[in-house]
Amino acid sequence: MNFVQCTNRLTAHLLSCTMDITKVHRGRPGTGAILLHSRIRLCGANGGHSKMKHKIGVLGAGTWGMALARMLTVSGNDVQVWSAIEAEVDSLSTNRVHPNLPGMKIPAELQFTKSIEEVCTGKEVLLFAVPSVFVRSTTAKARPYIPDGQIIVDVAKGMEPDTLYTMTEVIADELNREDGPKGVKLVALSGPTHAEEVALDLPTTIVSASPDEAAAEFVQEVFSNTCMRVYTNPDIKGVELSGALKNVIALGVGISTGLGYGDNARAALITRGIAEIARLGVAMGCNVHTFAGLAGIGDLIVTATSMHSRNNRAGILIGKGKSPAEAVKEVGMVVEGMNALPAALELAEKYQVEMPIVQTVDAIVNHGMSAAEAVRALMDRGLKNELPQL
Asked: N or C end of the chain: smaller count of CB under 10 Å?
């Protein structure tokens, strides 16, 4: 076959994978697509993979929980969502839109409940999608209704200040009480993911992390589709540590942006920030390669550079002169980076790891240091070798 024949065959194949934009949306409410010049490739959430139907309960109806619930529903699964806020359940089930995801239609097949017992009953997967500060209390409420051997997927990112536990460790601690279920399999689902993009079926990659390989692979199969590519990783501690601490670094990047600093400073903070996270992770026994992957540098890049990121936006507001409390109020959602600061500092002290960016963000957020003064202090530190000293 000559070059021209190869080109013609490739062109024909590509054309067969595309269709007119008006045809994509006809009869497919809520399905997103990627615009390629005047044509698009369909990125439907239920195409490309031969999938079984699974029963999934989602605890939490925030942006991330609802984006995943919609995606899983469109993929052909039986999904039910619970929220502790009854008015939220009423609004979502009636209006079929989420106030913070205006471009997303909630499928009619997606069910809602006000009963935590109902959402936990008869489900193959329970997806915990509440903010990190509510993971323990939600687990305590759900504990009486979680059966033995249940697969639980956590998507909250953070560290518990008092215990220094990751979110799956918080869940495990709460379930490991005398009346708790036995043999629960915990999976952390984490990576460079904005709910706003997943809600529109834009291509996304994520990591299913668990020391239980079978559980990680089952979650990989359930959540994978033509818009969501899922990788597995046994290093659940490294994945969760990355997810919690990248929010702190993203706050710092936002502060730098708010001060008017440019791409040079942003790149420096991201690069040295992941170095801090990796140093701590390795000291805690994590796999160094995790921090160079999707849950590490990948998640940090997307969180520190996008206006979808509440941590980045809050940092920008602080850099422009707002107080941390004013910034959180204006963002209007939980800023997980602020919640993660106490645990990050305690872990750095416990493992004797230097984390100057984390310490600088803490000085601004919790100790009243001006952002400009903090950046100067960071830049005036003693000179060092970039490479770790072995």
From this structure: C
> What is the rounded distance in angstroms from the CA atom of residue 161 to the CA atom of residue 142?
22
Q: How many helices (H) and strands (E) does the chain have?
A: 17, 13
Q: Count CA within 13 A, CB hemisphere, residue 279.
A: 24
User: Is residue 232 exposed (0-12), middle (13-18) or buried (19+ Cβ within 10 Å)?
Assistant: middle
- Active-site residues, by number, are 246
Average pLDDT over residues 139-149: 98
| Structure tokens that stand for 314 in this block | 């809050």
User: pLDDT higher for 6 or 302?
Assistant: 302
Asked whether the beta carbons of 44 and 31 are under 8 A apart, the reply is: yes
In 3-state terms, what secondary structure has residue 192?
coil
Return the closest-CA partner of residue 291 out of 308, 312, 307, 270.
270
Cβ pair 252, 269 in contact under 8 A: yes
d(CA 115, CA 112): 9
- Owner of token pair 């500060």: 133
Contacts 24+ apart (CB under 8 A), 303-307: 303/192, 303/246, 303/247, 303/249, 303/250, 304/246, 304/249, 304/250, 304/253, 304/254, 304/266, 304/269, 304/270, 304/273, 305/253, 305/266, 305/270, 306/194
Query: In order of start, what are the domains of the chain with their CATH numbers?
Result: 55-234 (3.40.50.720), 238-379 (1.10.1040.10)
**pTM value?**
0.85
Residues 239, 245, 249, CA angle at the centre, nearest 5°?
130
Identity of the amino acid at 54 = H
Which residue type is seen at 28?
Answer: R
Q: Cβ(66)–Cβ(98) under 8 Å? A: yes
Per-residue model confidence as pLDDT tens digits over 226-279: 999 999 999 999 999 999 999 999 999 999 999 999 999 999 999 999 999 999
